[in-house]
Amino acid sequence: DGAGFTGLWTAYYLKTLRPELSVTVLDSEIAGFGASGRNGGWASGEFSLNVEKTIAQHGIDQVRRLFQTVYSSIDEIGRVAAAEGIEADFHKGGTVTLATSAAQAERLRKEVESSDRLFEPGDHRWMDATETARHVRSDKAYGAVFTPHCAAIHPAKLVRGLADAVERLGATIHEKSPVVDIAPGLVTTTGGTVAAGTVLQCTEAFSAGLPRGRRWVAPVYSLMLATEPLPQPVWDAIGLDDRPTFNDGRHLIIYGQRTADGRLAFGGRGAPYHYRSAMSPDFERDAETHTNIDRVLRWLFPQLGEAQITHRWGGAVAVPRDWTASVVFDPGSRIGRAGGYVGAGVTASNLAGRTLADLSLGRETDLVSLPWVNHRNRRWEPEPLRFLGINLGRQLAPLADSIEFRRGRPARLTGGLLHWLTGH
Q: What is the mean predicted confidence (pLDDT) over 300-311?
């Protein structure tokens, strides 16, 4: 159940591999209502994983294999979009991670140097300020890290187009069908029950509202805005000609892209976590957070001048306690799930869909032995500890950034506390 990217990709590959299967997708709202339809539009090579712990458990070669499979999944998204005629504004221009303080430059350069053991030389490389300006022009940049492993997309176009493709293949999507319980062979909704030999839970942040999901993930809100279409002289001043996605090295995550219709779409974290993992449409707009996001965008690009913000929105991402995404399938109960992407789910959900399809069909493929398969996440602490810890992290991140901008070196105390809170 869940008609977001994970559920739809799973249905797509199940029907592709076994056209005769009866596949039903349930969603409490409409296909793509959640994070799949309202994210930052990064089909990226980022993957939520505790790298060192996973290397210790599975070995570095398996972690390398996981990342290379994630990278190839970006191209797979583009392949399916083209094959199914989905006009999702897919363009693979990479990602530029700006260093907007001396501390960020130090940290990012060290990360690139230490990544050689895990990645190929071209996967991530440091660019000085001059080379950075060929990609994106911000007077705040000391330099940047570039990776080619990201495509900018329009998420709503992709998820709705994928839903159409799934229905063309013969799967059934039932919208406005909230699921209240999942059991072996049976899914209970507010309108009735569905019998199924295999049940796959693909509900991401909304998992927190199901009986067995409350402490698996915490829903953390990420908010976005978009400018009006910008005139060409403004784009000449900003760059982003090849539509790379962009962010910077701060602790409080920001992310943006140049859209196909000439806007800047830009978002960030910082909205409060709500007690007992509560979710509500009221939380999707937070005046203070949206104001801060607007301020950061104009700080990065003063070239925007008086450009208007025409859209503001938000949604919840699913954060496991160990910040590690997972695909789990129990062949006994034939219940599976995938998620916990921590906001990096556009690409990971495609990989999850292919993996869940293979696990469900008993296929012994390379995907089913990747190290995130059947990873058991730590459970979140009970309330009020969860509320206090997550919101402490929300406050520490901008504090660490403020210290780094002011002092020009990494904030070691707050950085260490963030490390402990996030499990990395």
A: 98
